[in-house]
Amino acid sequence: FFDYECIACSMMAPVMEKVMAANAGVRFAFRDWTIFAARYPESAQASRRGLSIYRKHGADAYMAFHNGIYRTGHNEGKLTAEDIEKVAAAAGAPAASDADNAVSDAVTENNAALAERLGLSGTPGIIVMPAENATPDNTTVISGVVSEQVMQQAIKRAEKG
Fold this sequence. Notes:
Elements: H1 7-22, H2 41-71, H3 81-90, H4 98-118, E1 125-128, E2 140-143, H5 148-159
Antiparallel strand pairs: 1-2
Helix pairs in contact: 2-3, 2-4
């Protein structure tokens, strides 16, 4: 669970890139949780663009957008609409429509409800677990910024399940 305006999420983005590259057989699911949207409208704007890019252009274009937003170094109110559109264009995505925004908003609302049910208190919220037969012994919940080593240990724990 992440927010594009979250400075801690920005610090985790390069860690996640390395962990993803080192674990090709592991599935990663990114959940937009726009907890900063009331303060920074670009939180929701970036989320909408990213989700639209995923639906229309697939995972590779989405990851290019996702990581591109964090590479701007703009967060905590510094991310701009211009940043978002520049990164979206670099990912090969044309402008999104209002209908796209409505679909994306429904996704983020569902993600917020899921995060609350899971007891997450903020972003980043990372849950590492096996796809099947998850138990407390093979599931790790991480809040905040952690090292690549901590992520790898959580993956190993999940693989034992």
